[in-house]
Amino acid sequence: MKADRDLKKAVVLSDGKPGHLNQSLGIAEQLKNTEVEVIEIEYKAKWVDLLTRLSGVINNFLRFNVKLAEQILKLALPEQKYKEIIAVEADLILSAGSSVAALNLILSKVKQAKAIVCMTPSLIGTRSFDLAIVPKHDQPPKRKNIIQTYGAPNRITSDFINQEVRRWNEIKKVNLTELKSPLIGLMVGGSNSYFDITVETISLLLDQIMDFIATKNGEIILTTSRRTPKAVEQVLKERLANHNRCRLLIIADEWGINPVPMMLGVSDLVVVTEDSVSMVSEAVSGNSRVLVAGLNKKKNNLPRSHQTLQSLEEQNYIKYCELANLRAGQLTELMKQVYLSDGEERLLQDTYVAAREIEKRFY
Question: Are residues 236 and 254 in the same domain?
Answer without folding.
Answer: yes
